[in-house]
Amino acid sequence: MRQFADAENLSELVRDALGAGRRVVSVDRLRGGSQKGVYRARLDGPRTESVIVYSWAEGENYWPSTGEADPADPFAPASGMVQFLTAQRTLHGLGVRVPRVLLADDSRRRFPAECAVVEDVSGGTLEALFETDPKRAAGALGGLAEMLGVMHRDRSRNYGGVDLREHGDCVSGVPCERRVLDRALGHLKEAAARDGSIAAAESALRDRLEQLAERVSPRQEYGLIHGELGPDHVLVDADGRPVLIDIEGLMYFDIEWEHVFLRLRFHERYAALSRSDLDPRRLDLYMLAMRLSLVAGPLRLLDGDFPGRAFMQGVAVHNAKEALALLPQA
Fold first, then answer.
1. Which residue in 101, 275, 310, 317 has the most C-beta neighbors within 10 A?
2. The CATH number of 7-119 is which of 3.40.50.10860, 3.50.50.60, 3.30.1780.10, 3.30.200.20?
3. CATH architecture of 126-325
4. What residue ranges do the domains of the chain occupy?
C-alpha cells in the first residue's frame, strides 16, 4: 500500500521553509507524476497562500526497477533532489525561468524522503491556457521559444545529464546516435513482447532503425535540452512568462531529440518552436526511436500499479500505430 504525504507530515517542512507561524491547512496530491510526488500545500496567514512540495520517496516512483544503470547513459532514470537542484541551478544561471526553491532537505528528519519546497506558480499550465486563454498562451509560447533558444545554444563537447557533467562523470565513448539506436532496439524488443502489431513488424522496424542510423554523421557538440518538454511541463507565471518544471532529466544532447518530442506534444503549435538548422537524418532516426519509447515505456509502467491505466494504454496504442506508419510503404 503506497503511503502519500498529508498536512500533518508536511507541516514542519513547510514551516521551516516559510517561517514560524505558517500553518498547513490542506494538502492536495497533484496528478500526473510517475517518479515523484507533487503536492500543493495550502496555508493560512496573509502572505504566500500555497507552496508546492516535491517528494522523491520510494513509494512515489511507479516505474519498475530495471537494475543498476550505466552512469554515462543519458537515458538512465533521472529522479532525486540532487538532479533537481543541479537542473534548477543550471537553468536559473542561464536566465531560464524555473520555480524558486524555498527549501531542500535530504536529512529525512523533517520528512521521510528527499524533498523540496518550491514556489507555487499560479498561472496554470501552458496546456490548459491553450484552451482557456489563447492570447496569453501565445505570448507564453513565444517566451518558451526564446528560452529554448538560450538552452540549445548552451553547448558542451560531451553529452549527458547535467548532474553528472557537473562532477565530470558524463563522458562516454559511445556516439550519441548509437545510444539512441541501442535504446530503440531494446524498446522494440520490449514492445514486441507486449504488442501484437509491433511483434508482427519487428523485423521491418529493426531494419528501418539500423538504416536510419547508418545515415547519421558523427557530431562533437551538444545543446542543453529538457528532454521531455510538453505543454504540461510548462507553467505560466503571473507576468505571463513560461516556467519549466519536471526538469530532473536536463541534459546535454542532440537538440533534435528535444525537437522530436516538441513536435509530438505541441502538434500544430510546434511551428512557433521550430528551427531551420536541424539535421533531418537525426530527426528521422529519433522520431522512430521516440515512438517506440512511447510504446515500451507506458506498457512497462502498466506492469505495476500506476493509477492512470487507461491513459497510458492509449499512449502505447497510439504510438504503436505511429511507429508502424514510419515504415517505408511497399
1. 101
2. 3.30.200.20
3. Alpha-Beta Complex (3.90)
4. 7-119, 126-325
pLDDT digits (tens, 9 = 90+) for 61-77: 877 766 666 767 888 87
- Angle, alpha carbons 110-89-250 (nearest 5°): 100
- In whole angstroms, give the CA distance from residue 324 to residue 287: 12
With a threshold of 0.85, does the pTM exceed it?
Answer: yes
Beta strand segments in the chain, E: 24-29, 37-43, 50-55, 101-105, 115-119, 155-156, 160-161, 222-225, 234-236, 242-244, 251-253
220 CB contacts (<8 Å, ≥6 apart)? Answer: 157
Report the phi/psi class of residue 220: left, alpha or beta, with left for phi > 0 and alpha for psi in -120 to 50: alpha
pLDDT tens per residue across span 129-177: 999 999 999 999 999 999 999 999 999 998 999 987 666 555 667 899 9
